[in-house]
Amino acid sequence: MNQFTLENRIAMVTGASRGLGRAMAIGMAGAGAHIVAIGRDNQSLAETAKEISAAGGTSTVFQADLCDDTAVKDMVQATIKMLGRIDILVNNAGIAPMERTTEISKAEWDRVIDINLNAVFLLSRTVGRQMIEKKTGNIINIASVYGKMASNRSLHYCASKAAIIQMTKALALEWAPFNIRVNCIAPGFFQTDMTAEQQSNEKHYNFLMEKIPLRRFGKPEEIVGSVLFLSSAASQYVTGSTLFIDGGYSIW
Question: Which residues are marked as active site?
Fold first, then answer.
């Protein structure tokens, strides 16, 4: 079990203010990591930090626009100046609007690609530079079951998450010589704000219950085991992989 420890690790988690990001941040802190929690809402970030502290962990919080190259560079530099390094990066921040393709504006397409994909590139590239220098590091990208499957109401989301899975493979291949592992988690439907419509719409919910073999949505804490595995020495021979945590939804 010592292989799963994150003692003395510095882990940056984006989208840590709520949902799966908060669950992963709290879980990683419980395994010993100091969490650098990134989000857009200061109040929600403070709540995440409070939960981490209550569980005996430590954290630092940053409010940042992850689509702004300069803001990302400043945040990473500030973290390294304060904490010395970044050992683990979890690229979790994202949005999931549901719209028919004919109703998606160019501005909305750009917004989804910017937040879901470009931010992952900017952070991975910027944090990756110091990981390459130190010749060690661990990056975990959060994609989605819709990076493999399709939705008839979310073209931009599907495209962005499929790209993250491919980005994971390309980075894993490029950075393996520097002892940097890059892997991906593809969640299915979890009980979070992002799936509020699916949970409240009886027709949509019943449809999903027929498609999910385990016949339920996941609980946020059920994502923690996968991120602990991929961010710890327990997975030291794993890179370029995508782990689906979806109750069997992607079996179809």
Answer: 157
